Amino acid sequence: MSDRTRTETATGTTTGTTTTGTTTTGTTAAGPAAKDPDEWATGDEPITGPQLSYLETLLQQAGRERTDDLASLSKAEASKRIDELQAVTGRGR
Fold this sequence. Notes:
This protein is of the alpha+beta class. It has helices at 49-61, 75-89, and strands at 5-8, 13-17, 23-27.
């Protein structure tokens, strides 16, 4: 097993744990959302707390009302929604 792990988050950042146990976070070389959320191994898992909170913030900043139950979204669906709202609000660049 490798002594370095890699996980993709909804915002496209990469988090790795080195052999010393330190955690580093940075944007992947290809930029945010380099991998399509539909291809995530964990994309069908429920939305995370941080995703839900950020979606609510973006909706408010975009002047949009919450029209559905965001808590029922998957990680991949939430990521797509975040990308759409970031484009509207100009955030995440």
